[in-house]
């Protein structure tokens, strides 16, 4: 008998770069949501510098190419993740909408309600720490707050220089949040929320409503 000729098998087609092949288990809206949640958790736990696309993909149990496919660069993934983290704060413009009377107190009570909730506080703290140590993270956070919160809030204010006033109000609250929740400076850290709101509300009221 003549032995069958041996040799190299048929040439394999070159592997295509970019998006992996679509499968029901690894693609679709559910996968995108899983990646986004994994990204939120990774950024919250590790900060911007120590989070990687590969780490997000591992946490979401997907190929890193899918992370790039849905969100692009690490900066773009971070932007999507902090939008999810800051979703509760997107209601601030609604809190100041309506009667001018009490707008400052409503805004303060709304924001401190978010900070006092451990579920929302921990990711917020992580994002703020990232913004303090990384300029890319700071730029993304700054842009998101400006577009999604401050510009909408300014649209609700019937006063001169509404954007500047919205920034003053937001800066006042962010400064208090830094002392209370990040630096944990006493007596601010252990003060009653109602006491802080009572002190801060009139100042915010002046920013938001006084001509």
From TrEMBL:
Keywords: DNA-binding. Residues 29-89 form the HTH tetR-type domain. Signal peptide: none annotated. Residues 1-31 are annotated as: Disordered. It comes from the Bacteria. One of its GO terms (molecular function) is DNA-binding transcription factor activity. Residues 52-71 bind DNA. Pfam families: TetR_C_16, TetR_N. This is TetR family transcriptional regulator. It comes from Streptomyces antioxidans.
